[in-house]
Amino acid sequence: MTLNLIQRILSAFTFKKETAAKPDLAFIAQQLRKPSGDFAPKIAEKMNNSNETLFDFTLEYVQADNEEKILEIGFGSGLFFKKIFAYGKSPQVHGIDFSKEMLDLAGKNNIELINSGKLTLVHGSSDCLPYADNTFDKVYCNMVIYFWEDPSTHLKEIRRVLKPEGSFFTGYRTRESMLGFPFTKHGFILYEPKEWEDVLKANNFSVIGSNLRNDPPFESDSKQIELVSVCTASEVVKD
Description:
Elements: H1 3-14, H2 25-33, H3 40-62, E1 69-73, H4 81-84, E2 92-97, H5 100-109, H6 111-115, E3 119-123, E4 136-142, H7 151-161, E5 162-173, H8 175-178, H9 193-202, E6 205-219, E7 224-236
Parallel strand pairs: 1-2, 1-4, 2-3, 4-5
Antiparallel strand pairs: 5-7, 6-7
């Protein structure tokens, strides 16, 4: 990848007019969906910087407890796994991501947790989870549902691997927030809380509720985007 292309993609992400060339918005959308190639670490760094407040917000509701088995879907660079254990508990945490580059990066970022047996990471997709039925107490994801073309397929798998009455937590930002980023016009499926709740209900989840929080605006030299983070909590409906 050329330096010029990297500058153009960073410009699209930050809204800084660093080059006269038009940013490749479709490419950056593709990279956010599945970071790959030499640029993957840079895209991961940008995602970490812009999404950390949302991750913190979601983990407040996940509330990992001792001995619980927890799965994160789409962990990216894995930089925030350590925060799960910051509550003084000792859950058994698993993660799955369908970017091989992110799996490798997350492995490097979490060597101690992996070697201690507290964290297990695998390469794969949430529409075909490599886990047995009734494995997890809780499943969560952040900034992932935008890329599910058929949410039902993914939710069916999540429901399968959750224990009876297990919990699923979805972290995302409102459609209104995300439309401020020009690359979201390229393949992102965006939701307002009520819309995502309806998707969950249609797929045999009982919605506990959606919690909203206004995060600090995303600042740039050309615009300011108001960010509203959402964590929707749900449970498996008993058969």
